[in-house]
Structure formats: structure tokens, C-alpha cells
Amino acid sequence: MLEQRARALGLPVTLTTYPDDRARARVPGTLGVAHEALAVASVPGQLDPRNSAYVLKLIDRAIDATRAGEFDAMVTAPVQKSVINEAGIAFTGHTEYLAQRTGSTPVMLLTTGELRVALATTHLPLRAVSAALTIDSLCATATTLATELARGWGISQPRIAVCGLNPHAGEGGYLGDEEIRVISPAITRLRAAGIDASGPLPADTVFVPRILARFDAVLAMYHDQGLPVIKHAGFEHAVNVTLGLPLVRTSPDHGTAVDLAGTGRADDRSLLAAVRLASRLAAQRR
């Protein structure tokens, strides 16, 4: 597939076999590839469920090799969840798959550098978010966030802004009681454990620059509460980092852009940022 794409786009790249020719693979213009055969030929922009198992094989190869120390980190490209499900394979996303494969409880963190937003829940329908939020789950998520910010970013005492779930953080219970029942008690427990967590803060104001300046990270309650801000702030260089894993994993913060497949017009800046951040975080673990 890579050879065909290179020819179609006129890219002067030489593919080598990994790991047989590592020295040559480091030469500019060459790319070392650990080959995994497609089930059927890939046509740019056309999704084929018959290749879904192939996608998962690549993810498994990266997970196993990184955990074994063969690789220092893994960087995942966007994956089309729908076509994997069409193949009869239950799949909600990389983060959930990594959790299952590694027996971990991961935390999704999106970052543009200075702006860092973690998610209390990931790929859930909006109607399921409230039931998924518990005092224990919020405390576990915030604890992982604080621990990883100290280890990977050198922030010894991270200041975490915790969003409310409802408009105006529930308006004292008039617009929902999750802030009273779950979020506030979790913050109290976190502070008692020495974690600098503040909130619950209204999500529509926590991202105001003068408020953001008081914090090192924001903990959003659900996917679309935090991600639109990150993507607006820096779509071209935003990176998705999975915290709480026994390995380093990053990913670009965008989807598959099927309409751009094979055109040579896809923007690679978020992917390059993901590679650079994975390299830096891996170095912190050595």
C-alpha cells in the first residue's frame, strides 16, 4: 500500500524492511516498514471492512513491541471506527482498546503545548455521560492526570481545573445535581489527598485566558466539552496523549479525512507533533 501511494503521489521514498536494515532506514528519504499484509488491496478513500482485522493487527504489533521494549513509544494514526464495527468487531476507539489490551484505566489528554485538557469520559453517547461519572472515577482520573503531568511534563504540583457537567456548573442544583452529588465530593477527596483540584467550574468560562492562566490542565467531563476548544486553539499541532498506560502513546488530534486519502493534501502537522511529543515523553521514562 505504501509503495503504491508513494508512486501515485510522486514521492521519492525508498521503503526498507524493518528490522533487517535499521542503518539504512535512518537515511533521509528511506522508511523502515514492519510489513503486515492487507487482506484486500486498498483503494484510496474507499473503506473496506475486510481490512479491519489488518488494522487491529497493526495496533497489536505496536502495543506488544512497545511493552517489550523493542519500541520506545507508539504513535497511532487516525482509525475509522465505523468500518471496524461493520466487520463485526466491537471497537469504540484506540483509548478503550489500549485499556483492554493492557489492563489499564487510561486517561485521554489533548494538548497544544501550553493548553492541556483531560477527559473524565471518552467515547460515550451524551445520554450516558452522567451515569458514567462517579466520585471514584473522577478521583482516579484526576490522580492519573496529576501523576503524569509531574512525570512527563515536570509539573511537580499540577493545578487542575475541574469542569462542571451542566450549564453554569449546575446553577446550585437548579440545572442538574451532578456537581453536588459527584463532582464536588470528588474534588474534596482529591484536595484531602494533596492534589490541587479546583471546581466545579462552568465549562463555558473556564477556558477564558485569564482563568486558564491559573491552571496547568483542565479536566472536562465529556468528549465535546473539551475537544472543540483544543481544536480551535491549535488544530494543526494538537496531540492526543493516553495517560496511565504502561507505555507511551500519542496520536494526532483529528479523524481519518477519508475524502483526502490518496490526494497528497492531508495536513501532517498534528502527526509530526505527535511523533515529537512521543519522543520527548519516552525520553522522560528512560
How does this model look, in words?
- The protein is of the alpha/beta class.
- Helix 7 crosses helix 8.
- Strand 6 (159-163), helix 8 (178-192) and strand 7 form a beta-alpha-beta unit.
- The protein has 11 helices and 10 strands.
- It folds into 3 domains: 1-35, no CATH class; 37-104 and 256-286, no CATH class; 105-244, 3-Layer(aba) Sandwich (Isopropylmalate Dehydrogenase), CATH 3.40.718.
- The two termini are 34 Å apart.
- Helices cover 41% and strands 15% of the residues.
Order of helices and strands: HEHEHEHHEEHHEHEHEHEEH
Q: Can you say what the CATH homologous superfamily of the largest domain is?
A: Isopropylmalate Dehydrogenase
Number of E-type strands:
10
In the CATH hierarchy, the architecture of the largest domain is 3-Layer(aba) Sandwich
Tags for this model:
10 strands, single chain, alpha/beta, 15% strand, eight-stranded mixed sheet, two-stranded parallel ribbon, Isopropylmalate Dehydrogenase, 286 residues
Provide a short characterization of the protein structure.
With about 290 residues, the protein is an alpha/beta fold. The chain contains 11 helices and 10 strands.
